[in-house]
Design a protein that fits this description.
The chain has helices at 2-12, 55-65, 68-88, 101-106, 109-120, 140-152, 170-174, 184-188, 194-209, 222-230, 247-257, and strands at 16-25, 31-43, 50-53, 94-98, 127-132, 156-162, 179-182, 213-216, 235-236, 245-246. It is an alpha/beta fold. It is globular. Bound molecules: guanosine-5'-monophosphate (2 copies), manganese (II) ion and sodium ion.
């Protein structure tokens, strides 16, 4: 409960921050997107003045308490505002945002997304919402309806951590999905574990046969990259290109990359 109190205070006091990790087109080498990743710098009395808490630790608390709704709205507003500015400056860079299942049930996410797009002037095609396969396990009818409404706004949809969940392949037909994100666990050992390589390859083939784009996460080395080029993967994200970085750094990253 202490965590929840602190998190509520962090939201009030503007202690949450977004970092941005570049996504590149493998054919052109251009930056075509960025994933927004939440960061919480929690002040304390230490020499460093505080420490970062991972979203993996505080998102579950936010979901259980309902605090995920205002946090998610804050993330969406910040990230869309940032992307609208990149686009105005001539950078065709899409913003990808993580949305957890709880946000589908606890809020009117469709109205909120519509409002943010109107306010920021961001082209809906430049916004991508990442959901994990776990959202398909909940109320299917509600999920299909919400995803269809979001897609109706022109927003793109990606399945995050693809290959690690329990969803049925038939969902790929039923849901208006645009992109699969190959989970980083398959990329990490793709060069020395034939099973992981086979899974990564199969996800690329599956995506392409269904007319979906495929992006690989966790690309750390030149060898990972060469493997993904050989397998005709479309896009990449990972430490090989950049870690998630603060907004100001991301702006200079894309300027220097042109
Ligand atoms: O950036 P990092 O590896 O610490 O992220 C850990 C987890 O937190 C990832 O699964 C990521 O999807 C999730 N996460 C990061 N930012 C957000 C966010 O803004 N909203 C939600 N719902 N999850 C996020
Ligand atoms: O679950 P999701 O895919 O949203 O989580 C993204 C997380 O993966 C981020 O927290 C980010 O810091 C982390 N990440 C991004 N690129 C790499 C990478 O190349 N290697 C590793 N180990 N982690 C990465
Ligand atoms: Mn993600
Ligand atoms: Na992921």
């Amino acid at each position: 409960f202490q965590m929840l109190r602190d998190l509520r205070e962090a939201l009030d006091k503007n202690q949450l921050d977004l970092h941005y990790q570049p996504q590149l087109d493998l054919k052109t080498g251009k930056v075509i997107g960025a994933e927004a990743l939440l960061r919480w710098f929690k002040p304390d009395n230490s020499k460093e003045g505080g420490s970062y808490i991972s979203p993996a630790d505080f998102i579950p608390v936010a979901e259980q308490s309902g605090l995920i709704v205002p946090i998610g709205e804050w993330v969406l507003a910040q990230a869309c505002e940032a992307a609208a500015e990149w686009n105005r400056n001539g950078h065709d860079i899409r913003i990808a945002i993580n949305v957890s299942g709880a946000q589908f049930y606890q809020s009117d996410i469709v109205s909120y997304v519509r409002d943010v797009l109107n306010k920021t002037g961001l082209n809906p095609k430049m916004l991508e919402l990442e959901v994990t396969e776990s959202v398909f396990m909940d109320d299917i009818q509600h999920t299909i309806h919400t995803l269809q409404e979001l897609h109706g706004l022109g927003v793109e949809l990606a399945i995050d951590d693809f290959g690690t969940g329990y969803s049925s392949l038939s969902y790929l037909r039923q849901f208006p999905i645009d992109r699969l994100k190959i989970d980083q666990s398959f990329i990490r050992n793709a060069l020395n574990n034939p099973d992981d390589a086979a899974i990564a390859k199969t996800i690329v083939r599956l995506g392409h046969s269904l007319n979906l784009k495929v992006i690989a996460e966790g690309v750390e080395t030149r060898e990972h990259e060469a493997f993904l080029i050989a397998e005709d993967c479309d896009e990449v994200q990972g430490f090989r290109y950049s870690r998630p970085i603060p907004l100001v750094k991301f702006k200079s990253f894309i300027t220097s990359y042109d």
